[in-house]
From TrEMBL:
Organism placement in taxonomy: Eukaryota, Viridiplantae, Streptophyta, Embryophyta, Tracheophyta
Name of this chain's protein: TIR domain-containing protein
Species of provenance: Vigna unguiculata
SMART domains in UniProt: TIR
Keyword hit for Coiled coil: no
Domain TIR: 19-180
PANTHER family referenced in this protein's UniProt entry, alphabetically: TIR DOMAIN-CONTAINING PROTEIN, TMV RESISTANCE PROTEIN N-LIKE
Amino acid sequence: MVEQRIMSVVPSSSNSCTKKYDVFISYRGKDTHKNFNTHLYEALMQKKVETYVDEDIEKGDEISAALMKAIEDSRVSIVVFSKNFASSKWCLNELIKIMDCKKELGQIVIPVFYNTDPSHVRNQNGRFMESFVKHEGEPNCIKWKTALTQAANLAGWSSQSYRTDSELLKDIIEDVLEKLPPRCRNQCKGWVKNLTPEA
């Protein structure tokens, strides 16, 4: 069972309130873009949390320099693990960057396991194992697996523990607000969407 709440000490460095975004959301658009993530965006918007939403969804395998920068410029990353998350090299490369930012910049990472078993993410079982059979021979394979295991070992939120998405979203939003530094909570001004035009 995923631990549902975690107390986090947020660094008091001056950098904590100089970030451009409060939250970056990583997700597999094929699975959750039109439902859970839309509701997550709206819930963050209602709380005036500055959120980076990548609308340039999964074009190819490599994520852009602008997206890399957006991850670096975020205080918190929410990673929504869904059944087909690991089938996307784009999502896996995003996750590597997010976990690097956690290690090097102290970024807070909140995993959300949406209709998927946390142990499948942690151990690459089930659909995650099927995805890695297809990724066999990829140069980043070990890095992807390591990032998945590290992220799944963090305290997070599982939809399996909730009757409705609205209950899950309520707890996620409360968790995000608790993890933002107090000064930054007061400075939250709005909602940002990445509206990169189609190439």
